[in-house]
Amino acid sequence: MVLQVTDADRVRTLVLDRPDALNAFNEELYDATAQALLEASADPGVAVVLLTGAGRAFSAGTDLLEMHRIATDPDFQRGAHGFTGLVDALVDFPKPLVVAVNGLGLGIGATILGFADLAFMADTARLKCPFTSLGVAPEAASSYLFPTLVGRQDAAWMLLSSEWVSAEEARRMGLVREVCAPDDLLPTARRHAATLAARPISSLIAVKRAMAEPHRDAIRAARDRENAAFAELMGGPANLEALRAFAEGREPDFTALP
């Protein structure tokens, strides 16, 4: 099992559970998380979903070793949902999504905050959008959602620099509502999730729809632009250099590349 699923008081908690891989998303975890969101969406007994990670990381993003296999092995078997299916499930998820960032969040472990209705972060956690260091493009509609959430310059720094962002900086930007001591993170997130879950599900859905609907077309357009750019760059010289460097335990050298 790569995803723990538990229910309590109309809150469904999803725990990313690949701690030895820092909860990096392989095809199995993408499929499990997307399917869990689809099931929670359809379950009349679920009012709120709370997402967090097991161990010292929230998620290290896409599993780079598996990404290298996908880029180089035409016979690699992809999952039923994959990354695109998870993003679609997030875009369409009709109920409140609460995210508790318990540790490192890279790639989708950071960009998923664009879909959070409430987000909380341990004060020891950090975020990174490592797209330029991997020679690829943004993902998960972050090129639209991040500027909308935090403003152009903070979004540009996160998406262009591939630098770490601290929990306090994430709170200042508006990516998370509250920064907590690690031991207080889940109790705080659960308390807020329980407050929402005590409200009528029909009303929660109506409020979220009213907030999200004006952005849906722009989110989908951003996702399509990003997917096209990602497909163009994945397997290209910069991406292959980044993946080789990761596999060899060294820093990539892009100085000879455009």
From TrEMBL:
Gene3D superfamilies, A to Z: 2-enoyl-CoA Hydratase, Chain A, domain 1 (3.90.226.10)
Keywords in alphabetical order: Isomerase, Peroxisome
Compartments (UniProt record): Peroxisome
Top-level taxon: Bacteria
Pfam families per UniProt: ECH_1
GO MF: delta(3)-delta(2)-enoyl-CoA isomerase activity
Main location: other
InterPro entries assigned to the protein according to its UniProt record, in alphabetical order: ClpP/crotonase-like_dom_sf (IPR029045), ECH/Chromodomain_protein (IPR051053), Enoyl-CoA_hydra/iso (IPR001753)
Name of the protein in its database record: Enoyl-CoA hydratase/isomerase family protein
UniProt organism field: Nocardioides caeni
